[in-house]
Amino acid sequence: VGVAQVTETAKPKDSCFCHNEDGIIIMENGLLKVTIDQTGRLMSLLLLQANRETISEGHLGNQFALFDDVPLYWDAWDVMDYHLQTRKPAVEVIEPAKVVRSGGLQGSVSFSLRISGKSTIKQEILLDACCPYIKFNTHLVDWEESHKFLKVEFPVQVRSPNASYEIQFGHLQRPTHRNTSWDWAHFEVWGHKWADLSEHGFGVALLNDSKYGYSIHENIMTLSLLRAPKAPDANADMGSYNFTYALMSHTALFKNASVIQYVYNLNFPLHVFHGIIAEPWNAFSVNCPAVILETIKQKAEKNALLIRLYESHGSSVTMTLSTSLPMQESWHCDLLERPDSSIPVSNTSSGITLTFKPFQIRSLLLIIQ
Description:
mainly beta; Beta-galactosidase, Chain A, domain 5
């Protein structure tokens, strides 16, 4: 967490696009090669370094699908498994896919689809230079449905009995099969910013900035986008929406492939300001990739900050929290942010040394001079 001056010197490998004679669009940034059809669906997502195809053979990724969503009892709360029998792919093109930007540090392709007689969607597919994932910036122009459920699907070339999902301050696994009634009950599950399906040596992560429903059945990764319940509010969720999701292929375990760090980058992008600074300034930094600095909060006292960190990999680690702020005192806190003097804080010349057990949360109260 800080600020640094960046001068544009040598450019990274440019993102580039080209059309073939059939109107198929190819995006490439040196890490990924993406092939897109005229409806905005992914025909191919090739991880170049490993020469590994992500999209399942004979299938298309980024496929929007609309479902009938009529629960037995509670419209806004329940989702019934029988809605899966009503799948209707959205394939009616309003504007076919076209290149918006080519070359430079970012390339993009845009298209729009009609979801139904009432609702339309416009999307911009973005590929940044040196970025290991492809982004889908989505604008739902008009969502005026009744008892419908919109999802987007990615059939991938991965086979695994379990998928991993982020929860607050950690992650857990759920089955991708429906062998038992308990497994079947996971036809729709919740998660936070990412879900990952991995086998030995290869995996795919589905990242997002604001959606919390997932379904991963066998090799099909699905993100729930919008519902249209009519009770208790007949106008719930109607209108226009903007959201972003992304697809990331990787060759290591998601923990070692920095999936968690990249999803934080997606949700909290760098801010660029024009100006000159004397030297780089770093308010806080951590020296362990497994530990996430999740919260920096101003306390009621003007000279006090609340810092919250957590261990994200499920491992036991020791790390150092460094700061350039003039720190006067530091205290461990509980989750109610009450200082706990019974736990000493280990201050060294390089910062505060902390030990974490798997998924442990630690809170610190810092008094600044």
